[in-house]
Amino acid sequence: MADFSQEEKVYFMTEALKEAHKSLDKAEIPIGCVIVKDGQIIGRGHNAREELNQAIMHAEIMAINEANATEGNWRLLDSTLFVTIEPCVMCSGAIGLARIPQVIYGATNAKFGGAGSLYDILTDERLNHRVEVETGILAEDCASIMQTFFRQNRERQKEAKRLAKENSEFAN
Amino acid sequence: MADFSQEEKVYFMTEALKEAHKSLDKAEIPIGCVIVKDGQIIGRGHNAREELNQAIMHAEIMAINEANATEGNWRLLDSTLFVTIEPCVMCSGAIGLARIPQVIYGATNAKFGGAGSLYDILTDERLNHRVEVETGILAEDCASIMQTFFRQNRERQKEAKRLAKENSEFAN
Questions:
Q1: Chain A within 8 Å of B94 (Cβ-Cβ)?
Q2: Could you confirm whether the keyword S-adenosyl-L-methionine appears in this record (chains A, B) (predicted)?
Q3: What is the set of active-site residues of A?
Q4: For residues A161 and A14, what is the distance between their CA atoms, to the nearest angstrom?
Q5: Which residue among A58, A106, B133, B150 is buried most deeply as judged by most CB within 10 Å?
Q6: Cα–Cα distance for residue pair B72/B83, rounded to 1 Å
Q7: What confidence tens digit (pLDDT) does each residue in B2-52 have?
Q8: Residue B121 carries which DSSP code?
């Protein structure tokens, strides 16, 4: 298990936040992830579900796929996954399947979280792989970019509604 | 929700079993999956973790990705996923994220199942998507191909051990 200093944790979570900003720029739910091994980033990912039209393309999945390709191995032993928001059920399952031993996430996800909130998949003793979990690194920044997205999303919906109304007036 | 006759269920599970045989032929854990919409298969998948070196590449994930591409949509509304073995935690999460409303699986997976055995993710009322689940279609065939794999795997391990022993004798 890698033993990161607080400074290193903040550094890698900032890299995950850079990934989240890629999603925000594309009007996607802004979650970002990096996977680190021996002090190097071996996989990066950001949520790209809408852009790629792939239901599974969460930040963690993209990062795991990239790290698998980097390593030429589906097992990501001795690595650490940094992600801005608590992994969902699917991603928690994927982290275990990829044999990642350590997860550090920013903010919790009370509605969908599979790593402590709704479920506790990463530490379930019935499963064949258990993960050390730490949370709270840059939690406010990680949550704040989500709030920005949902505010912008409401504005987009309002604008779309206004345009639809305008168009219906023209149609009369 | 599609209303399949018993004959149709057996037909599509047989197609999922054909996918499982692709995994068996490559010495992968033999699980297969098809996704059906309006009576047509829109996605097929088989477990290919070792071949592709991708931790996430379970049968359901491959089939969901293919169905997303076929439909040009990450939402697989009005579709049914047939899979030979009960989905794991990751795949159960992925099925919900893809908004698949119906899952029919063959045999249960007591050790890793996320759709009734260890967890009941597909019917969890706290999540924003619930799935109708049916099990038992061709259950014996679906379990039997798994047993074939594990028997062949033990034989491969035995043979590898024998060869290693032979080599160590040559080295002396």
A1: yes
A2: no
A3: 60
A4: 36
A5: A58
A6: 22
A7: 899 999 999 999 999 999 999 999 999 999 999 999 999 999 999 999 999
A8: G
